[in-house]
Every structure is written in C-alpha cells, then in structure tokens.
Design goal:
This protein is mainly alpha-helical and 421 residues long. Helix 2 packs across helix 10 and helix 5 runs antiparallel to helix 8. The protein starts with 20 loop residues before the first helix and ends with a helix.
Length: 421
Amino acid sequence: MTPAVIPDNPLAPVSGSERIVALDIIRALALFGVILMNLPSLAGNSYLPGHGVSANAWEAWGWGISKAFLAAKAMSNFSMLFAMGLFIQFDRAAARGMGRASFAFRRLGGLLIIGLAHNVLIFDKDILVTYALLGFLFAVLWGVRTRTLVLVGIIGLVLGESLPLLIKAFHLDPRWATSAWVEANAAARHQIFGQTGTWLQAVSHRFAVMTHGSFGAFTLESLGYMLPMFMTGAVIWRSGLMQDPEAHLTTIRRIFHGSFWIGLLLNFAIRLPLGLIPTTWGKVAEGVPLILFKDIAVYSLALGYLMGMLLLLRKPAWKQRFAFIMPMGRMALTNYLIHSLLLSWVFYHHGLGLWGRTGFRAQFLLTAALFACACGWSHWWLSRFRFGPAEWLWRSMTYGIWQPFRREPPPPTVESASEMA
C-alpha cells in the first residue's frame, strides 16, 4: 500500500458534513456501556468464586442494576449502530460504482485482522471478529428487500435461542461447555492474568484459547446473539429513522413506547433478579427456559434506548449538551482498543496487578473517569487529525491507499494574507 493521489470522485470515507450527529453521540454512549460490561472479565471478577459478586449489598445491587439496565443493552445498541455504519458504506460503494464484494472483502477483512490481533494481544472477549463475520453476511444481504432483513433477523433470533436448548436437550455439551473445563480455564486465567503471568504468557494463553474449540463456540454464540441486532440496525437505517427523525416522529414514538416499557418490565422481572444471583461455573447450561425472555428483555430495552435518544436529540439544547461526547463516537474503534489496553494494564499481573481487587463502585468510577478523558482527548485529536489512529488504519486498508491523516490548515483569508505581506 503506497501513498496515492485521490481521484476527483473517489470512494472515500464519510466526511464531517455527511456524518449523522445522533449516530456518533449514541455510539459514544453505547461504548461506555460496552466498556463497563467488559470490566468484570478484565478485572478478574468473572473468574472469582461466585462470579465475583460481592457480599456487600450495595455492591451486589450495583452489579445487578448494571447487568439489568445497561450492559447487554449497550452491546446491542453498539451492534445496531455498527450495522448502520456498514449500510452507509455499502450504499456509498454502490453509488460510486465499486463492486460490493471487493469493498466488503477489504473493509471487513481489515476489521477481522484488527479484531484477531486485539483478541490475542490484549483482550480475548473481542467483539470485532464477530462484527467482521456478520459484516460478510451483510454484504450478501445488502440488496435484499427490507422484509427479508426482518425475516433473517427472526431466523437468527430463533437459531440463537435454539442452540443452547439443543445442547442441553441432547446432552451435546462439548468440552468447552462443561463445568470442569470452565473451572479449569477460570483457574488458569486467574493464575496467569492475576498472579504470576507475564505479558507473553498471557498472549500464549489467549492464543491457545483462540485455537481451541471454545473460541469458535464463543464466536458462534455471539453471532446468534448479535444477528437480530444487526438486522434491526439495518431495518432502522433502511426506514430512514436515523437520517430524518422529524419525518418519522410517529413511528419513532410508537417504537419507543412499545419497546421501552416492555423491556423495562421484563428487565425488572427477569434480568434484575438474575443479576443479583451469583452465577456458579457449574451451571453454565442451566436456566435455559428463561433465555428467550432474557434476550427479548435485552433487545426491547436496547431498542427503546435508541429510539429515546433519537427523540431527545431532536431538541437543539440536548444535542448541544451531548456534543462533547460526539468525537468519542467518531473514534469508537480507537477508543475501544485503547480502553482494552489501559484496563488490561491496570488489572493484569504484568501491569498494576489489581486483578480481583475492585468492586462495582470502583469499576464504575474508573469507567466514568476514562470515558471523560477519552471525550477530551478525542476532541484534541480530531482538531488536528482527520481520523482516530485505528480508524485511519482501517480506512487505509479499506480503500487501498494511505488516507490523508493530518488536517490541512485553512487557506489564509485576504485580510490575513495582506497582514503577512
């Protein structure tokens, strides 16, 4: 890949004037939830006895409320927004006459490479690999009718819910789903990440897990879980709700009231109690009858959050209040990777070694502090550069040329030119 002169009518990244402000703001908020959701794994709580649930009532309620009303919903919204971003790119590729297959191969192949590197080198609960694989399916489905997208989403929901049921009903539990293997893996992670391991030993362990059946199983489970959200994001984009909320106010309000209140009720009834009950590793495949209702609770509330933010951001005052976080949404990939890097250094033995020593309050405050810092540094960075570092690399891989990186200073005005003369 060599520097090249960009032609007059290139297939190039979305410019600032083309961006949808609400999409960047909501993406930043979703990223906050994703980071908070990843913290129990990064901090070691997920691999402690009782799933790291504190005996302290306030801590337990903090975890329960976070799991019920934030964690999985943020991931769902992040998935919907990623799907919308892909459709934007595919639409622009078609408008510029570029082959969808070649564009998708470069775009999603680049993301797959970044995701695999992140998975091995930093954090092995990566979502980028799943996003890349779902993106290839999206490339196939890009030109189909909206009702087909809805049908695929429903099929994905059914398949995603059926897999655990079939595994349990027919006793097909592979080795990675048994309590013995999970216990052994948790003990190994606790020893390597929290007690004695170097960075190279951590990398070796993550690579071994990735090449083991558990990584494929985790990815397959993630595909089933995220596919309905991808299709939901595609349908929302196709319907024009994100592009022109004012023209679809009635639809947005109906979706908000239906999904938000149903999701809130189900999360109070199901997700909150489950979030307060310590999960033991010996019950990995249990609780299956509740899976469908649990996921409907997640999907409904996530959709309600998205529609609620669209309604809120219609108002200039609220859009102005949230404007500070918009640059973080524009640099979501970079910030996602940086947070993984920083938090792994904070908690792993080869860093500060705080593995297993923090509870919900400390982790929430840490996430909030890092989020505020990320918003500030994203402002600083985008005032000087066109893209975040990871976005720039990904775009350069996509378009086959090194993208312009630094912002060009504005040309001098007549007055300033005369002053310099």
